[in-house]
Amino acid sequence: MSDTPLPGTPPSGKPLANRIAVVTGASRGIGRAASLALAEAGAHVIAVARTQGALEELDDAVRNAGGSATLVPLDLCDYDAIDRLGAAIHERWGRLDALVGNAGVLGKLMPLGHIDPKVWSNVMDVNVTANWRLIRSLDPLLRRSDAGRAVFVTSGAASSCRAYWGPYAVSKAALEALVRTYAAETATTPVRAMLLNPGPLRTAMRKAAMPGEDPDTLRTPEDLAPHIVRLASPDWTESGAIYDFPTDRVLTPQKPA
Ligand code: NAP
């Protein structure tokens, strides 16, 4: 036995000790479980969502687990607020080690011709434009980390193109193009940008999409959370690919010749 930490192991022994992570959609579902798991792994979590009460409950859970968080009640459609978040992180920490772009909305499941333009716009605003604005605002801070990690939550809907899932499917396909482009632009830096397909998980969004389904048949956000910690860790080296939780495989999209 030795009291000396192993080389590369942070003094606390926690794999993400002293690392700073932003998680969007931290108030419930996948984002909440990811926030808690990142905090348990030692990261200081900057938890973003609109619902202040739920963020405060997350903060209690993080503290009880011996972790720390900064709560940021924010509507991701307020793009100036995203820029202010970037400025505040720069001022306080000067860098960002991980960004988990998880917040998302389903919109309405209906034929393309019936969709209210306001619903279409909101799905694009939250699922696509807000993630671009996060990259725009936080990329300089990720580049200042020794191992900046960006993880964005996509869906099998991006490629299945099922009837009635139009806005959501289009938004996730756009998100995948966005993140793969970001991965290409950061290929020669320490930053790594990944997509994550969680598959069907027991959350409010899944319940809204599949009201007749028995939630007990689904895996939970807590099952997924350790994989998000892995993707957010300096040890993760892949970029521009999709980590597919249902199959535990890294899917590298084909590039045209
Ligand atoms: P959820 O339980 O509905 O949670 C969505 C989160 O996004 C909430 O924390 C919500 O917080 C936040 N959010 C939504 N609009 C926002 C806005 N305008 N500003 C700030 N935050 C906002 O959904 P989930 O199932 O955990 O989904 C998380 C991600 O996984 C999404 O990107 C979803 O598309 C993806 N996904 C989920 C499944 C699944 O089976 N669950 C499958 C594939 C992909 P507030 O309401 O407090 O703002």
Automatic annotation (TrEMBL):
InterPro entries: NAD(P)-bd_dom_sf (IPR036291), Sc_DH/Rdtase_CS (IPR020904), SDR_fam (IPR002347)
One CC-aspect GO term: membrane
Cited Pfam families: adh_short
Annotated coiled-coil segments of the chain: none
Xref: SUPFAM superfamilies: NAD(P)-binding Rossmann-fold domains
Statement: the UniProt record of this protein carries the keyword Signal: no
PROSITE patterns cross-referenced by the UniProt entry: ADH_SHORT (PS00061)
Oxidoreductase recorded as keyword: yes
Domain of life where this protein originates: Bacteria
Keyword annotations of the record: Oxidoreductase
GO MF term set: oxidoreductase activity
Family listed: Belongs to the short-chain dehydrogenases/reductases (SDR) family.
PANTHER family found in the cross-reference section: DEHYDROGENASE/REDUCTASE SDR FAMILY MEMBER 7B (PTHR44196), SHORT CHAIN DEHYDROGENASE (PTHR44196:SF4)
Protein's recorded name: Oxidoreductase YciK
